[in-house]
Design a protein that fits this description.
- The protein is 34% helix and 22% strand.
- It contains six helices and eight strands, in the order E-E-E-E-E-H-H-H-E-E-E-H-H-H.
- A hairpin with a 3-residue loop joins strand 2 and strand 3.
Length: 239
C-alpha cells in the first residue's frame, strides 16, 4: 500500500555504495525512516541535494513494509530553499537545529502542529536576512510549547525557575535559575516572535548565555538529551 506525506529531513547515514538511511519528521506519520537507493547514482528517486538536513520533501512510499525502514517510490521538492543550503551562516544554524531536533523528537506519534511550526519556521529562516542571528533562540523558545513543556510568558518577578518552567519571587535552592541581566533578556525573548525577530538586538555574549539557558531548560525537561556536536561551531559563528 502506498502512502504520501510531507517530511522534513533530520539526517541521513550512508548505507552501502549508493544508498542512504534517511531520518525524517513527517506531517502525517510522525518520525519516519527510509532506505533510499541510488542517491549518488542516476536511477534513484532522490538526489543528494534533496537530502540535506532540514530539506522539505513530498514522499510517496510503501507503507505495508514490516520493516521500520520504508522504501521510497517517488520524491519531490514542493518549495525549494533559496538560501539555507548556500548561506554559510544559515547553514550553520540549520545543522545545529537538525541535530537538536533529532535529540528532542523521540516519540513516533503524529503531531501536526509541531510539523507545521517546523516547516513555517524553516521557510522563514530561508527568506529572512534581518534577525537571522537570533533565529535559533526564538525557535527553541517557542518550540518548547509544541513539545509539551511550554515556557511561562514573562511576568514581573525576579527569578525564572528552569526546573519548574515558571517565574518566581524567590531564588530556588536547586541552582537552575535565571536572574539579573540574563533574566531581562530571557523576558525579552519571550515577547519576541518570528514576525518581530529583527527588533531583537543581542550581542554575542548574551546570545551565548541565552542559548545555554535554553539548552539547560531542554535538558531538564527531556530524557536522554545527549551532547550536541554542532554546538561549538554555532558558538564560534554567533559570537
Amino acid at each position: 500500500m502506498l502512502a504520501k506525506s510531507a517530511v522534513i529531513v533530520l539526517g541521513s547515514v550512508k548505507y552501502g555504495d549508493s544508498s542512504i538511511i534517511l531520518k525524517t519528521y513527517s506531517e502525517k506519520f510522525g518520525l519516519l525512516s527510509f532506505i533510499a537507493g541510488g542517491v549518488r547514482g542516476k536511477k534513484g528517486s532522490l538526489r543528494s541535494s534533496m537530502v540535506q538536513v532540514l530539506s522539505q520533501l513530498e514522499l510517496v512510499f510503501y507503507q505495508n513494509s514490516k520493516s521500520d525502514l520504508k522504501r521510497i517510490k517517488e520524491a519531490s521538492v514542493p518549495r525549494a530553499y533559496q538560501n539555507v543550503l548556500f548561506d554559510p551562516f544559515k547553514n550553520c544554524i540549520s545543522m545545529f537545529l537538525a541535530e537538536a531536533l533529532s535529540h528532542f523528537i523521540k516519540e513516533e506519534e503524529v503531531n501536526k502542529p509541531l510539523y507545521h511550526y517546523l516547516s513555517h519556521s524553516l521557510y522563514w529562516l530561508d527568506e529572512s536576512e534581518e534577525g537571522k542571528a537570533n533565529f535559533h533562540l526564538v525557535f527553541l523558545y517557542d518550540l518548547s510549547g509544541y513539545l509539551g513543556f511550554k515556557i511561562q510568558p514573562p511576568v514581573e518577578k525576579a527569578y525564572f525557575d528552569l526546573l519548574d518552567g515558571s517565574y518566581t519571587s524567590h531564588d530556588p535552592p536547586h541552582g537552575h535559575v535565571l536572574k539579573d541581566d540574563v533574566l531581562k533578556y530571557w523576558k525579552l525573548l519571550g515577547k519576541t516572535g518570528m514576525g518581530n525577530l529583527p527588533e531583537l538586538r543581542l550581542n554575542g555574549d548574551i546570545r551565548f548565555k541565552l542559548l545555554e539557558a535554553l539548552l539547560t531548560y531542554y535538558r531538564l525537561h527531556l530524557r536522554d538529551f545527549g551532547e550536541l556536536k554542532s554546538l561549538d561551531v554555532l558558538h564560534t559563528v554567533m559570537r
